[in-house]
Amino acid sequence: MSFEHLPDGLGIGVPTPRLTWMLPPDAGAQEAYELELARDGRTDRTGRIASSDQLLVAWPGAPLASRERVTVRVRVWATEAGGPSDWSVPSVVEAGLFDAADWHALPVGADRDEDPAADRRPTRVRKDFELHGPVACARLYISAHGLYEAEINGRRVGDEVLAPGWTVYPHRLRYRIHDVTDLLAEGANTIGAWLGDGWYRGKYGFDGGTRNIYGTDQSLIAQLEVTYEDGTTASVATDRTWSAAPGPILTSGLYEGETFDARLHDPGWATPSGADAEEWTPVRTGSRDFGTLVAPMGPPVRCTEEVVPVLVTRTGDDRHLLDFGQNLVGRLCVTLDGAAGTAVTFRHAEVLEEGELATRPLREAYATDTLVLSGQGPLTWEPRFTLHGFRYVEVSGWTDDVTADMVTARVYHTDMRRTGWFECSDPLVNRLHENVVWSMRGNFVDIPTDCPQRDERLGWTGDIQVFAPTASYLYDCVGMLDSWLTDVGLEQLPDGTIPWYVPVIPGEPMWTPIHPGAAWGDVATLTPWTLYQRFGDLDLLRRHYPMAKKWVDLVEGLAGPTRLWNTGFQLGDWLDPAAPPDDPAAGRTDRYLVATAYFAYSARHLALMAAASGSGADAERYGELADEVADAFRHRYVLASGRMTSDSPTAYAVALAFDLLTPSQRQPAGDRLAQLVSEDDACIATGFVGTPLICDALTDTGHLDVAYRLLLQTQCPSWLYTVTMGATTIWERWDSLRPDGTLNPGGMTSFNHYALGAVADWLHRVVGGVTAIEPGYRKIAFHPRPGGGMTWARTRHETPYGTVSLSWEQTVNGLTASMVVPDGCEAIAQLPGCPPITLTPGAHVLNTAELATKAV
C-alpha cells in the first residue's frame, strides 16, 4: 500500500491521500476490494466494493487531521482467486501540519551584521532542553530559509541533503517531518542545525550570479513535538531562546564549493555538554507566512551510490589527479590525517584538456572545496551545502600519496525509485542508454535542471518537456515533477506566458523580460499529459489543466485569425548542429514553423486533457482549434510539391510526429525525411526539437532501417559519436568534445545535459517494444521492431500495477519474445509479420515462426 506518490506515508501533505496497492501474485484481474482504516482506537471497513480500481483510489474515510495517524489495510477479490485475499500488511499514513495555526516556530539565525553583497560565513543554531519522562513518540517538523542539516544529541537527523530543496519560496517552502523518537532521551537534550545559503540567498544564476534572490537571512524553522509515555506532550520550537554561532564552514556556495576549517569544529556542539557558551549568542528571529509551508510531494535528495577512483595520478609535488571513470553529480568524502593548518584543495571538472582540468565550460562555477586539517588525527569529511558535476578532481596541497581508499565520490540526486531498464545486443547502444540514465540522475536534483556543473543549473522548461517520456520510464519521477509543475503554474505570468526556466531568477537580457517561446512553454500541456499517461494520475492532469489552458489561450491570441504563430522571439530547433557555436538558435528550420507546429500539438493535447477531465465543451473547442492550426500549418509550410518550406529533417519530423499532414502528404514527407538523413550519411541534423521526434517519424512512415542507421551512426554528429569519444553522460552539444579532442569553443558547452538523450524513449518503445496504451500501463502494447543488425533486446518497467517486461531474440527459428503482463492489466502483442494477440496477466512466450504456422 502506498499513499499519493510518496515512498512512505510519514508527513503526508493532503487530508485525503489516495491509495495504491499491488495485487497478490497470480491474482489475475481485480473484481472488488475492501479497505480497513484503524484510527483513534476504532476500526472501520468499507465493505466489499465492486471495482477494478487499485491505483490512486479515493480516501475512504473522514479526512485526516493534522498529525493524525491511520493504519490502512486492503483485501481484494480477483479472477484467479476463489475468495477474498488475505489482508495486506498494514501501512501507516501520518498527516503533516495542514494549517498555519499548527505552527508556532519562528525563523532563527545569527544576530550579527553582514554585508549582503559578500560571502557570508554560515551559522549553526542550537538549543538545550529537558525532557521530563520517557518518550513514546517524537516528530521534528523542519525547514529553513536557505539549507539546513539537523542534529539531535550529536546524531544526524535524516539523510537528505540540500533540504528543503528549491521551490518558489514566496509561495511554497517545503518542510519535512522526521521520526526522531530514538534520538531523544529522558533528561538533558540538545537540538542543533548547520545552515547554508543555498538557492535562498546564495549567489546563483547567470553572469556571476545574483545574491539574496529570496532574502538576506539564513534561518532555521523547526518544531519538535514530543509525546511522553503517559500521554502528555511537550514542544521545542525555534524562538528567541535559541542561540547561534559561526561554524567551521568558512564559505559555502552551490557554485563555489565549500571551505571547512576542522580546527574550528567541536564535534560535540549539538550535545548537552558540548558547546562553549561564550561562543554562542542569542539568535535573531524573523518571520514566515506559515500558510506557505507545504509538505513534500516526492522524495528528497540523497546519496544513492558511492564511486571510487579508477585512476590516481601524481602530477606534482603536492598535486594529484583523480579519475572516477564516470561523469557524475555529487561531492567527495575524504579521510586525511595531517598537520594542523594543512589546507587541501579539491577542484572538479567534467573533462580534461591537454591533461589538465577543463574548467572553461564551468564559467563562474568554481567547484572548489578546501579542507583545513586540525592535526587531531584522521578526519573523514564531506562538504554539506554544495554539489559538483565532475569526473575528474585535482587534489592540491597534499604532499603524500593519495590512494583510492582515501577518497570516495558520493552520488546525489532526488532519490526516485528506479523503474525502467533496457539493454540490447549492441554494446555501444547499451552505453548510450547508461549515459542517459546518468544524465537524468545528475540533473534531477530536486528540480529538473539543464546541467549540474556550470553557473546555471536551472529548471529549463523545454529540456524536461522533450525528456519527460524518457524520464517517466526510467524513474518514478511523478511526485518530483508534479511538485515542479506546481511551481511552473505559480510562475506563469498573468497573460499565460510560461517562463523559460522555473523557478524564475534574474537572467541575461536574452531571457528577461520573460516572453513566450514554443517548445519551452509547451511544457504546460505536454508534460502533465505525459505524466498522466505513464502514471495514471487524473487528479494531476486536472490540477495543471488551468495552466495548460492559459498557455494555449495566450498562443491563440498571439497567432490571431491566421492561426500561425509567426511573431516574437523563438529558439526554434535549439542546438541544431548546423548552428554556429555562438548562436545555437540559428538552425536550419524556420523558427515559426516550429512555433506553429507546437501550437497545434498543444491545442490537440489540451483537447485530450479536457476530454479526460470530463470537460466536453473544452475538448470540442480545442480540438477544433488544433484542426484549424494544422490546416494553417499545411497551407503555410507545405509546398505544392509536398516538400516543406524548410527542407530540413526537423521540419519533416515535427510535421509527421505532431500529425499535421494529410494522409496523402505523410508518406512523401517520410520519404523526403529518409532521403535527407541518408544524404547526411545518417549523421544527426536536428537539435532539441527534432531529435526526440525523428526516429519515430522515420519508423511510422516505413523507414525503420533509416532510423536504425541514425541511431547506430558513430561519426560526428551522432549519439554514438559521443560514446566513441568516451562520454559517460549525454552532452549538451553534439560536438561538445570535437573529434580532435578539443572542446567546443561555445560559451555554452556542458557534458551532462539530458535533452538529446530523449531518444531513449524510442529505444524503450520501438527497440524494446513496450508502450502504454492506457494511462498507467493498464493496457500495454508489446510491439518490438528489430533492426540495425540487433539480435536481441530486453526491457523492463515497473508500472503502477507491477512489472511489465519484454525480451526478444532473433534466431534461425524466427523471433522469440518472452513477455510479462502485470496482474490487473492486459496487453496486445504484435510481433513482426504476425497479427495482434491479446494477452492476459502472467508470463507468455511467443515465436513468430510458430505463429505463422498456426495462421496458415
What percent of residues adopt helix (DSSP H or I)? 10-25%
Find the CATH superfamily of the domain at 100-254 and 266-297. Galactose-binding domain-like
Rg is: 28 Å
CATH class of the domain at 100-254 and 266-297: Mainly Beta
Tell me, what's the shape? globular
CATH architecture of the domain at 100-254 and 266-297: Sandwich
Q: Which secondary-structure class do the elements indicate? A: alpha+beta
- State which percent range the strand residues make up: 25-35%
- Unreliable spans are none
Discrete helix count: 15
Q: Taking all residues together, what is the mean pLDDT? A: 96
Largest sheet features: 10 strands, mixed
Strand tally: 45
Put the structure in a nutshell:
This protein has 856 residues and is an alpha+beta fold. Helices cover 23% and strands 28% of the residues.
Task: Please tell me about this protein's structure.
By secondary structure, the chain is α+β, with helices and mostly antiparallel strands. Among the domains are: 2-95, Immunoglobulin-like; 100-254 and 266-297, Jelly Rolls, CATH 2.60.120; 302-414, Sandwich (Jelly Rolls), CATH 2.60.120.260; 772-855, Maltose phosphorylase, domain 3 (Sandwich). The protein contains 15 helices and 45 strands. The strands form eleven sheets. Strands 20, 21, 25, 26, 27, 28, 31, 32, 33 and 34 form a ten-stranded mixed β-sheet that branches. Strands 2, 4, 5, 6, 7 and 8 form a six-stranded mixed β-sheet that branches. The longest helix is centred in the C-terminal third of the chain and has 23 residues, at 591-613. The protein is globular, with a radius of gyration of 28 Å.
